[in-house]
Design goal:
Layout lengths: L1 H22 L6 H50 L4 H29 L5 H32 L4 H20 L11 H74 L3 H19 L6 H16 L3 E6 L8 H20 L7 E9 L2 E9 L25 H10 L3 E7 L2 E9 L2
Parallel strand pairs: 1-2
Antiparallel strand pairs: 2-3, 3-5, 4-5
Helix pairs in contact: 1-2, 1-3, 1-4, 3-4, 3-5, 4-6, 5-6, 6-7, 6-8, 6-9, 8-9, 9-10
Length: 424
């Protein structure tokens, strides 16, 4: 009946791939990912199968870390869009889940199935698809959202997961398989139960981080809406005041012109123009976008920052709600970054212009010298902070909803945010 054991081992190795792909973000497209993963893991499974026939299960289980785990780690790391601890956590988690199921089914077969491998085979046929369904149904979506939204804290979880994987390998396989060491069965069961509770703690912590992130995003959006509405209200108040004052200006000008006092009328008009310019705060014709620029121009002035607005847009119909969200997030990040700089370094610029069917937005500001962002990434990789990371996910999601994209990077001492949105 050892054939059932060997088939169940291959079944487990096959499902390790699927479990990992559920938690894995590849830099390749889906077809290439499945092709590379399937061929690479197929070769590993073939070689391990040959080793199983030549050396037996006891010998293979002792070197499984080197014959399968490490080579598969290298294979998937090359394909991964994530690096460092995010990838390490995903990899170790998938391997640990599969190894945990193998240990549980091995003990069930030995103590309840008489060690004939029938119960092992049946239980593994059922447990692995169930585990994949649970991961897909309850874990994958929040896990991906956490990878997008949370940049720090992954090293602790990854280190714990790796240590648990090594602990499980040692407890189950060394010096021999656990079924050959009945005196260690109770210890093995305690380790298996402890892993369940600890992983529940890990993912509860990750879940609370996700809720905290969502709450921060919600507060950020509400703050942006409040600022935009306040700016619009101020604009409306100013317009009403201008309409009221304009009646008095017209009466005064009519009186001067009727009296033939042309020079005095021109002087009065210049005074009216001087009065209107600093109050109007007009950056562009679109009242909604203008309200955002008015709001943040005030913040920039409070920071003593130098700013330049090059807004080549007119009265075209624009998706103003989404554009206000993009601009508010980008300009809020600018204010946060400039606040940490010396006064003489506080400067920024905004450009908006059309390129065929797209509206291009570029927001650039001075940043810290140690800030480094690789082109296309969502968050800085420097030590000591994350000046521009908050809100960038929202900008990218909003741009994608408008049929566009976002890119950010650092160059020549400045942080650059480029956004392209479709305006058709």
């Amino acid at each position: 009946m050892t054939i059932l054991r060997d088939i169940s081992i291959y079944w487990a190795m096959f499902h390790v791939i699927f479990l990992f792909i559920l938690l894995f973000r590849s830099r390749l497209n889906r077809r290439k990912t499945l092709l590379v993963a399937g061929s690479g893991m197929g070769i590993l499974m073939f070689l391990n199968g040959v080793g199983l026939m030549l050396f037996g299960i006891d010998m293979l289980s002792k070197v499984f870390l080197f014959t399968c785990s490490i080579p598969s780690f290298i294979l998937f790391y090359v394909m991964s869009a994530d690096r460092r601890f995010k990838f390490l956590l995903s990899f170790c988690l998938a391997d640990t889940i599969c190894l945990w199921l193998m240990a549980v089914t091995t003990l069930l077969d030995f103590y309840l199935g008489g060690g004939r491998y029938v119960l092992m085979f049946i239980s593994r046929l059922i447990f692995y698809p169930v585990a994949e369904y649970l991961v897909w149904r309850y874990l994958r979506k929040p896990y991906m959202e956490l990878q997008d939204g949370v940049e720090k804290g992954w090293g602790i979880f990854a280190g714990m997961t790796m240590l648990y994987y090594i602990l499980l390998v040692v407890v189950v396989q060394f010096p021999t398989n656990i079924v050959n060491r009945p005196e260690d069965t109770f210890l093995c069961v305690l380790v298996l139960l402890l892993m369940v509770f600890n992983y529940a703690t890990i993912f509860a912590s990750l879940y609370w981080q996700l809720l905290f992130y969502r709450r921060q995003q919600g507060e950020r959006i509400l703050k942006e809406q409040k600022n935009m509405l306040e700016a619009q209200l101020e604009n409306q108040r100013y317009i009403r005041r201008m309409k009221h004052d304009m009646k008095g200006h017209v009466i005064t000008l009519s009186g001067l012109l009727s009296a033939g006092q042309t020079k005095e009328a021109l002087t009065y008009l210049k005074g009216v123009e001087t009065e209107m310019d600093p109050l109007s705060g007009q950056f562009c014709v679109n009242p909604y976008l203008n309200a955002v620029f008015v709001q943040y121009s005030g913040k920039l002035k409070e920071l003593g920052a130098r700013y330049h607005m090059d807004l080549q847009i007119g009265e075209e119909e624009l998706p103003y709600m989404e554009l206000c969200q993009i601009l508010s997030n980008g300009l809020e990040n600018v204010c946060d970054a400039l606040e940490g700089l010396d006064m003489e370094k506080r400067e920024m610029s905004v450009q908006m212009k059309y390129n065929r069917n797209y509206l291009l937005i570029r927001i650039r500001n001075r940043c810290r010298d140690d800030l480094y962002v690789e082109r296309g990434t969502l968050a800085p990789t420097e030590k000591g902070g994350n000046d521009h990371g908050f809100g960038l996910v929202t900008i990218q999601e909003t741009a994608e909803r408008l049929g566009g994209d976002m890119c950010c990077y650092t160059e020549n001492g400045g942080f650059v945010l480029d956004v392209m949105v479709s305006v058709n």
